[in-house]
Design a protein that fits this description.
Distance between the termini of chain B: 60 Å
Structural class of chain A: mainly alpha
Radius of gyration of chain B: 21 Å
Largest interface: A-B, 35 and 34 residues
Radius of gyration of chain A: 20 Å
Strand content of chain A: under 5%
Number of strands of chain B: 0
Shape of chain A: globular
Strand content of chain B: under 5%
Helix content of chain A: over 70%
Largest sheet of chain B: none
Oligomer: heterodimer
Distance between the termini of chain A: 42 Å
Number of strands of chain A: 0
Shape of chain B: rod-shaped
């Protein structure tokens, strides 16, 4: 099946009905053991002590928040270029998921930073760019709630998504662009030979996979909900059109 | 069962509590919205069929 077939709302709803159950089960199978492993069965770090356990929420949430914004960017570009309604509804559906992930990343990062850096917050590149990404998520959600003109809000939200992508990129690569700052370098990297110790690495991978699956499941579920809501609005509008004429 | 968390136990437990609470909240809100919308769509579709 081509991914473009999902641009048809009926096919997307059929796809969601068929795959949401298996996706939810797979998410639970990956995420729950990952979190339990990370919290209960990982050793104390010799520098950070047990605060290293915060990593199993903070790193997956931060990665997911950035990746969700890039997913919204791709969906927005598809809307601007090909005008597939499902793509912009998918972006709208994904925003609260990304927003929740930025809240988790900011709060857990702050609670991790206080014992390690001696402060809950510092205006340094990665933290600041992530805060701006959080504000973009909030603005994106408010924009959808505040405008009634569907075509206009779809277009404006896409442009907002394009602007916000700069800060998503900065959040992702800030630790490589700027050497100064409190935040440590990337915990995981494809071009590094050495990662964190395997005792921390495996549960972290499991948590990242679990968060990614949870995000996919929620975006599919919420997109289906938005499609069905449009149908309800369309059906509710029909009698009014008849009455008007 | 809960591991010894040392002197930063409050920070660790707060981070996990808030993180899990936000995760549960977004899942619960999404499922509730999906169920409500599907019920409403069925109801409206049935009414339209009867009319």
């Amino acid at each position: 099946m081509s991914i473009w077939e999902l641009a048809n709302p009926n096919r997307f709803v059929g796809f969601a009905d068929r795959w949401l159950g298996p996706l939810a089960v797979l998410t639970a199978i990956v995420l729950v053991p990952g979190l339990v492993w990370g919290f209960l069965f990982t050793p104390e770090d010799y520098v950070q002590g047990n605060t290293v356990k915060i990593m199993y929420l903070h790193v997956p949430a931060a990665l997911t928040a950035i990746n969700v914004w890039f997913m919204m960017l791709v969906a927005s570009i598809i809307w601007l270029v090909r005008r597939h309604r499902v793509s912009v509804l998918a972006a709208q559906a994904a925003a609260p998921v990304g927003f929740a992930m930025t809240i988790i990343a900011l709060v857990t990062g702050s609670l991790w930073g206080q014992p390690m850096w001696g402060t809950y917050w510092a205006w340094e590149p990665r933290l600041t760019s992530f805060l701006i990404l959080f504000l973009h998520y909030a603005a994106y959600i408010i924009l959808w709630k505040s405008l009634d003109d569907l075509e206009a809000v779809s277009d404006i939200s896409c442009y907002l998504c394009l602007v916000g992508s700069v800060f998503a990129l900065l959040s992702r690569y800030a630790v490589q662009f700027w050497e100064r700052g409190l935040h440590q370098g990337s915990t995981l990297s494809l071009d590094q030979e050495t990662h964190i110790h395997i005792d921390y690495y495996l549960p972290l991978l499991l948590c990242i996979a679990g968060f990614s699956l949870l995000c996919i499941t929620l975006v599919v579920l919420r997109t289906r909900t938005h499609i069905e809501r449009r149908r309800i609005n369309a059906m509710a509008a029909r009698p009014r059109q008849v009455n008007d004429t | 069962m809960i591991p010894e968390l040392g002197s930063y136990a409050a920070n660790i437990l707060a981070a996990w509590s808030i993180g899990l609470a936000v995760l549960v909240a977004i899942v619960a809100i999404s499922i509730r919205e999906a169920r409500r919308t599907r019920c409403l769509l069925r109801k409206i579709s049935d009414e339209a069929r009867h009319d």
